[in-house]
TrEMBL record:
PANTHER family: TRANSCRIPTIONAL REGULATOR, MARR, TRANSCRIPTIONAL REPRESSOR OF EMRAB OPERON. This is MarR family transcriptional regulator. It holds the Pfam family MarR_2. Signal peptide: none annotated. Gene3D superfamilies: Winged helix-like DNA-binding domain superfamily/Winged helix DNA-binding domain. The keyword Nucleotide-binding does not apply.
Length: 170
């Protein structure tokens, strides 16, 4: 069995970070803030990649699971609003929606008030996928949050929520 070198990699990354950003005239707080930015980016990337691996056996790509997850929380959302929510182009979203519709995971229905507007709903088959996605999420969260107390988890959620709100104000 291969030795897990993740702790060594983390330590090496931290040392490299200190070398790169511990410059004369740069305050400790500025260095810490920069490090937080790098950590947020790295954690987000690693978490997405790990979840992608869990989704691969289900035959769902990152863009597809991201869209399905948002539709599950916003049934009946208009395609235009979903594009805004996901911060992707309408044409890009349209192609993803086409693939999800072809695979039987979502349904497009015209808005009764304006037939030019499409609303997006999960198809019955998507509910099984959502259940599997939630199982995978639970498994991933056990790994990601290993060693965190319930209080630490709540604190982390609070801090990340505040960061998200701050970014939305920009």
């Amino acid at each position: 069995m291969a030795k897990d070198n993740s702790a060594d990699l983390v330590e090496a990354e931290e040392e490299e970070f200190e070398e790169l950003f511990s410059m004369p005239g740069v305050s400790a707080m500025d260095t810490l803030d920069l490090r937080i930015g790098f950590l947020l980016h790295d954690v987000s990337r690693l978490r997405r990649s790990a979840f992608d691996q869990l989704m691969k056996p289900l035959g769902v790509t990152r863009s597809q699971w991201w869209v399905v997850a948002h539709i599950s929380r916003n049934e009946g959302i208009m395609q235009r609003e979903l594009a805004t929510l996901l911060d992707i182009g309408k044409v890009t979203l349209g192609a993803i929606i086409d693939r999800l519709e072809t695979s039987g995971l979502i349904e497009r229905k015209s808005n009764p008030d304006d037939r030019r507007v499409w609303q997006i709903y999960l198809a019955p088959a998507a509910h099984d996928l959502i259940r599997e996605m939630r199982k995978a999420e639970k498994k991933l969260n056990r790994t990601v949050l290993k060693g965190f107390s319930p209080e630490e988890r709540a604190g982390l959620a609070d801090m990340l929520t505040r960061v998200k709100k701050n970014l939305r104000k920009e």
